[in-house]
Specification:
With 318 residues, this protein is of the alpha/beta class. Helices cover 43% and strands 16% of the residues.
Length: 318
């Protein structure tokens, strides 16, 4: 069996790696090709190009990279068609993935599966009908999503969120993490998560730094879980009273680094984080959180008019 997978950001890489592990148990001789991050690569899959090129969020943020993204869309679709797989599985990142699926469907009858239902219940409900023209089946993370997809004409299965299957962080892991990084148990520890995209850190870094400076937290010890390629940017953007503990997994396997980030979240007394999957991870770690988000003025004006919900926090939505 041959599967072509596309992930466009760290959360999709995590979903893809878990999916690959499960598929290998079911079909040991399976082959994987596509676009992958470090976790999927550890499962034995090469990447057509660096996944980080696709980690862009917001209308104004996408515009400067429009032609580069169009080139990558064509390149990816051509790779799928040149060596047709049994199934094309696209993971989240709909602005990229569904454009690839459209080109593939226009030139073949390759089965297409999209992993993570679009948030049509939150904004732009018409996306489901457009998606049904190029996607055969959807794998949904939340139990309330299949009816939306089925009404648009797609098969849809609720497969659950992988956060629910993560092994719980143990007291021993927390104690070891705090000792290794010199975190004083008698002072509050705050985990700061300004996003996994360059544009998010640039936009949220100063705001998050100011919020910490103004909060009555008694100069907390700040822990910043991030990715290796974002360390320098995070250090430059976060202006904190004292140097934070940066947790980026250098020298570790991608799986071990991902686990350490979860342990970091569980080791903190409080979290300040960008909206996204991380809010579910913080909830699973039982860490109280403040969730925030911002984007460019143009993106905020346009997307704000389309929103159908009053929160961007996945925990609240669930």
């Amino acid at each position: 069996m041959k599967v072509f997978l596309i992930a466009g950001e760290p959360s999709g890489d995590k979903l893809g790696a878990a999916l690959m592990a499960g598929l290998k148990e079911l079909v040991p001789e399976i082959e994987f090709h596509g676009v992958a991050g470090p976790l999927m690569q550890e499962q034995g899959m090469g990447s057509l190009f660096p996944m980080e090129e696709l980690s862009v969020m917001g209308l104004a943020e996408i515009l400067p990279k429009y032609f580069d993204l169009k080139r990558r869309i064509r390149q990816t679709a051509e790779a799928v068609l040149a060596d047709p797989p049994d199934v094309l599985i696209t993971i989240d990142s709909p602005d990229f993935c569904l454009r690839v699926a459209r080109l593939v469907k226009a030139a073949s009858d390759i089965r297409t599966v999209h992993y993570v239902a679009p948030t049509v219940w939150a904004w732009r409900p018409g996306r489901a009908e457009k998606m049904a023209k190029v996607i055969d089946q959807v794998l949904a993370l939340f139990p309330f999503e299949p009816p939306y997809m089925e009404a648009a004409g797609m098969d849809c299965d609720f497969v659950g969120h992988p956060v629910a299957a993560e092994p719980e962080v143990t007291d021993a892991e927390i104690t070891g993490f705090r000792a290794h990084h010199g975190i004083d148990p008698d002072r509050p520890a705050l985990v700061l998560l300004p996003g996994s995209r360059k544009s998010e850190i640039e936009r949220l870094g100063a705001t998050f730094s100011a919020a910490i400076a103004e909060a009555a937290l008694g100069h907390p010890q700040v822990i910043v879980p991030t990715l290796p390629h974002l360390v320098e940017l995070a250090q430059a953007q976060l202006q904190l009273p004292a140097p934070p503990v940066i947790v980026a997994g250098q020298g570790q396997s991608a799986e071990a680094a991902a686990r350490e980030r979860l342990v970091a979240m569980a080791s903190a007394d409080l979290a300040l984080a960008a909206s996204g999957t991380v809010s579910l991870e913080l909830a699973a770690a039982d860490t109280p959180m403040v969730i925030a988000y911002d984007m460019s003025w143009l993106s905020r004006r346009i997307i704000g008019r389309m929103l159908r919900v009053d929160t961007v926090t996945l925990v609240n939505l669930v």
